[in-house]
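User: Before I run my own analysis I want an independent prediction to cross-check against. Here's the chain; please return only the structure tokens and, at the end, one sentence I can use as a sanity check.
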Amino acid sequence: MKVILTEKITKLGNIGDTVEVKTGFARNFLLPNGKAMRWSKENVALFEAKKAELQARFDAAKKTAESYVDAVRNAKLHMIRQAGDTGQLYGSVSSRDIARMLTEIANVPVTSAQVMLGSPIKSIGSFDTQIALHPDVIVPVKIYVAQTQDEIDALVAGKVLTFGTKKVEAEEEVEAPAEEAAAQATETEAAAE
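Assistant: Structure tokens:
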């Protein structure tokens, strides 16, 4: 289906672009949310008449998003969660949890769709993600997940947390080498005999 975009859509186009999209995407998302208009000669003329207004609205939304950038960057995203002996969380930290925390802590209206997390966080450590306040305003943030405030303070300071055979470093998760785990298993078997 051919549509005219009435706002910038990441990976699709800018305001005023005529793009070809799947019918379901247009009918279920773009058209009902006012993000696009069906392409026709009449709608092209109507869009040209409204283009200045749509661009002004886009610029105002971008300016508002830019005013929240410092609040998002300075927000301390520290999450305390229950975890097992290996550092695996009993639940997970999702984009909805991060959006809720940003809204409560930084008073920034963020939805879970604006959190570019990818997959949920399922272990203790520090994680990098991005918050898309606007298609042109994307803010990188760091999330710290631990069982206690002391562990969060250690992660923020850059120290290594150890859980059983697993080490969690400040920047990334590192598992113990397979040879080390095999040696420990051999020692355990020898002690059992």
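Sanity check: The mean pLDDT is 83.
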